[in-house]
């Protein structure tokens, strides 16, 4: 059985918000040494809302697709709202069942986001 849904494959092969922001308000880098996945996140904050977001990274389809999906979601959202996002939210956003090893991959972008806000 293939664990990758069409949504995951689409975001992995055609990532949204991929790149960097020239003068970000904040940036973070998260690295998972156990699997080698890496996510760099840049945001522009205006009036406590994310007005621009970009990510760069390398790693498995889950971590990269998760970053793409999450960056789509957070655009124009308030910091306070984003602080409430958790593991259950990410699993629901991705829409697939994940084992313990893959959960870590899926949560990497959220960890990068929480580090920023």
Model description:
One of its GO terms (molecular function) is iron-sulfur cluster binding. One of its GO terms (biological process) is iron-sulfur cluster assembly. With 117 residues, this protein is α+β, with helices and mostly antiparallel strands. The chain has a single domain (6-116), classed as Sufe protein. Chain: A (Alpha-Beta Complex), CATH 3.90.1010.10. It has helices at 6-13, 61-74, 79-83, 87-94, 100-116; strands spanning 26-31, 38-46, 49-58. Strand 2 and strand 3 (49-58) form a beta hairpin. It is globular and about 35 Å long.
Q: Please trace the helix and strand order, writing H or E for each element.
A: HEEEHHHH
Shape: globular
Q: Work out the helicity level.
A: 40-55%
Which structural category fits the helices and strands?
alpha+beta
| Proportion in β-strands | 15-25%
Largest sheet: 3 strands, antiparallel
Number of domains: 1
Quote the distance from N terminus to C terminus. 37 Å
| Neighbour order of strands in the largest sheet | 1-2-3
| CATH architectural designation | Alpha-Beta Complex
CATH hierarchy, class: Alpha Beta
Instruction: Indicate the mean pLDDT.
Output: 93
Number of strands: 3
Low-confidence stretches: none
Q: Rg, please?
A: 13 Å
**CATH fold-level assignment:** Sufe protein. Chain: A
Oligomer: single chain
Give the number of helices: 5
Pfam family, one: NifU_N
Organism: Candidatus Roizmanbacteria bacterium RIFCSPLOWO2_01_FULL_37_16
Protein name: SUF system NifU family Fe-S cluster assembly protein
Domain NIF system FeS cluster assembly NifU N-terminal: 4-115
């Amino acid at each position: 059985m293939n664990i990758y849904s069409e949504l995951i494959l689409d975001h992995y092969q055609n990532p949204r918000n991929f790149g960097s922001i020239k003068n970000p308000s904040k940036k973070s880098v998260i690295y998972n040494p156990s699997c080698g996945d890496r996510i760099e996140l840049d945001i522009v904050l205006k009036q406590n809302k994310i007005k621009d977001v970009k990510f760069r990274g390398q790693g498995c389809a889950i971590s990269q697709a998760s970053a793409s999906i999450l960056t789509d979601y957070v655009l124009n959202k308030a910091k306070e709202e984003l602080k409430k996002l958790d593991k259950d939210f990410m699993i629901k956003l991705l829409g697939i069942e994940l084992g313990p090893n893959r959960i870590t991959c899926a949560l990497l972008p959220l960890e990068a986001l929480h580090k920023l806000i």
